[in-house]
Design brief:
The protein is mainly alpha-helical. The protein is built from nine helices and no strands. The longest helix is centred in the first third of the chain and has 37 residues.
């Protein structure tokens, strides 16, 4: 049991530390809203993963993955959402900072908005359904629902901890990121990365 838990935790850490759309969005919101923006985005991502965990445990994720129309619709919606967020960042990079438009944690994305963005970003990605469907049963003997849900929630907590750490580190370097040229560069990079992840999601097929 403990060996399986250690193996699952190790694999989870590797997956979580690999940058993806959730990481890109968290960094973007931490840059614009400081620690608060990043941490609440991380919370939204973790809640989304918890929802997919429960869906995988009770077979709902399998239905989403098996239905071609539903999978494609969710995939395109998720890709469009990433492209929309990326376009916002590119627009900010193009405009630069306007008078009275200087970002501070108090003026960045609200807690609700950051939470919502993290949640939608995760729930609108049907590849998460495939991921949890393939990962959790490997560490749950006999396909026990309780075990799969517990492991999935552990994965969600580890994700939150990692993304929150990202946010704290970015907030600690705010003096650097608040410089106009650096800010425009990071907005441009964040926007390009988000659009890139959106394109990759749109072109991705199902895994069986």
């Amino acid at each position: 049991m403990w060996g399986q838990l250690a193996a699952f935790t190790g694999l989870s850490v590797v997956v979580i530390c690999t940058p993806g759309p959730d990481t890109a969005l968290t960094v973007r919101n931490a840059l614009s809203g400081g620690r608060r923006g990043g941490v609440w985005t991380a919370a939204g991502v973790a809640i989304g993963q918890a929802v997919w965990t429960v869906a995988a445990g009770f077979g709902v994720a399998g239905l989403v993955h098996a239905s071609e129309p539903v999978f494609v619709a969710m995939k395109l919606a998720g890709a469009a959402y990433l492209a929309y967020l990326g376009a916002q960042s590119l627009r900010a990079a193009w405009r630069g900072r306007q008078p009275g438009d200087v970002q501070h944690p108090e003026l960045g994305p609200s807690r609700t908005r950051s939470l919502r963005q993290g949640l939608i970003n995760d729930l609108a990605n049907p590849k998460m359904a495939a991921f949890f469907m393939s990962l959790l049963p490997q560490f749950a003997p006999g396909g026990e629902v309780a075990t799969m849900v517990a492991l999935g929630l552990l994965f969600s907590l580890l994700t939150f901890a990692w993304l929150a750490l990202y946010s704290v580190m970015i907030d600690g370097a705010r003096a650097l990121f608040d410089r106009p040229r650096v800010r425009r560069a990071t907005d441009a990079i964040a926007g390009t990365v988000l659009i890139g992840f959106g394109a990759r999601l749109a072109l991705a097929g199902r895994t069986h």
